[in-house]
From TrEMBL:
Protein name (record): Isocitrate dehydrogenase (NAD+)
Domain Isopropylmalate dehydrogenase-like: from-to ranges: 4-330
PANTHER family reported for this sequence: DECARBOXYLATING DEHYDROGENASES-ISOCITRATE, ISOPROPYLMALATE, TARTRATE (PTHR11835), ISOCITRATE DEHYDROGENASE [NAD] SUBUNIT ALPHA, MITOCHONDRIAL (PTHR11835:SF34)
One record GO biological process: tricarboxylic acid cycle
Keywords: Oxidoreductase
Length: 334
């Protein structure tokens, strides 16, 4: 049966890296139909709405979405479209793997870390962010619920079990944020008891950052709340050659949305030099999610081989190749 996929090309470098990614998916002989929809600045210009209802309807109907980065205009009263999408479809788990690819600027060998970030609450609420009239006091609300914490911790342990991973680390700041981070930690400790076969430890977030830089190989699966997960996953991307290398999945019980961890990179948009790897790897996660494990691994292997070729590396990896050069090289190695 034809699988319909909602495609949002996105802003900035989005269309460039999405075109590269679709070119690769088209090589895979999968029965996909692309349903192109707008969101972000592009949608604001065309339809007067950052997140048109038509786009939401398509995601809901197709259940699978591949999405380029979206620019949220700052200081114009818009709340983040990414956060809105995640909350609208209750995409509770943000799954962000990083692995070392030989040939990139990675400082370490053999990194294989999976960050599982709570994606719907924590410090990322659009409501409850206030500032007084003379702009001297700003406040925001952090909400952690037992239900969302249980969902994300269970997801982390289940994925660890399925993937044969050995260890789960719950990252928190319960020593200071006693109620919010404290509740998350309490839930993680309780649920770890249900998975005695998987090693479990807890680590305070600031120490985690230091440990990730000093000795990343001690980490396997990291599970944490929204803000810490956002920061830690960018740090992890830095361990394997930068944001151009890091894919992510937003998983809900009904809908799943796949994207790169990075943003729209306005500084290089339109120059055709963006590294499409993160979005291509996100597409690999998507087809794996749809059951095409061998095909996903074929894409990953072709990327692995291409990254060994210095002449094909994009600027962020120290090379001077164009997006299309890299993409064609991946296709030739599929
Ligand atoms: P960014 O990730 O767009 O860029 C940070 C730096 O990394 C820039 O120097 C950029 O050129 C470089 N970079 C990122 N991806 C790259 C790639 N594929 N190839 C080569 N170089 C790459 O982060 P920034 O500048 O903080 O955000 C820009 C915009 O993106 C903002 O409007 C932000 O809201 C949005 N954003 C959207 C996200 C999403 O849609 N999921 C995630 C993060 C940011
Ligand atoms: Mg981020």
């Amino acid at each position: 049966m034809t699988q319909k996929i909602t495609i949002i090309k996105g802003d900035g470098i989005g269309p460039e890296i999405m075109d590269a990614t679709i070119k690769i998916l088209d090589q895979m002989d999968l029965d996909f139909e692309y349903d192109f929809k707008d969101a972000g600045l592009e949608a604001l210009e065309k339809h007067g709405d950052l997140l048109p209802q038509d786009t939401l309807d398509a995601i809901k109907a197709n259940k699978i979405c591949l999405k380029g980065p979206l620019t949220t205009p700052v200081g114009k009263g818009f709340s983040s479209i990414n956060v809105a999408l995640r909350r609208h479809f209750n995409l509770f788990a943000n799954v962000r793997p990083v692995v070392t690819f030989e040939g990139t600027k990675s400082m370490y060998e053999n990194i294989d870390i999976l960050t599982i970030r709570e994606n719907t609450e924590g410090a990322y609420l659009s409501e409850g962010q206030t500032i007084n009239a003379d702009r001297t006091i700003a406040e925001s609300k952090i909400v952690v619920t037992r239900e969302a914490s249980e969902n994300i911790v269970r997801y982390a342990f289940e994925i660890a079990k399925k993937a044969g991973r050995k260890k789960v680390t719950a990252v928190h700041k319960a020593n200071i944020m006693k109620t919010t981070s404290g509740l998350f930690l309490e839930v993680a400790q309780e649920m770890a008891k249900e998975y005695p076969e998987i090693e479990f430890n807890t680590l305070i977030v600031d120490n985690t950052c230091m440990q990730l830089v000093m000795n990343p190989s001690q980490f396997d699966v990291i599970v944490t709340t929204n803000l810490f997960g956002d920061i830690i996953s960018d740090l992890c991307a830095g361990l394997v050659g930068g944001l151009g290398m890091a894919p992510g999945a937003n998983i809900g019980s009904d809908v799943a949305m796949f994207e790169a961890v990075h943003g729209s990179a306005p500084d290089i948009a339109g120059m055709k030099i963006a590294n499409p790897t993160a979005l291509i790897l996100a597409a690999a996660m998507m087809i794996e999610h749809l059951g095409y494990v061998a095909e996903a691994n074929r894409i990953r292997l072709a990327i692995r081989k291409t990254l060994l070729d210095k002449d094909r590396l994009t600027g962020d990896l120290g090379g001077s190749a164009y997006t299309a050069d890299f993409t064609d090289a991946v296709i030739s190695r599929l």
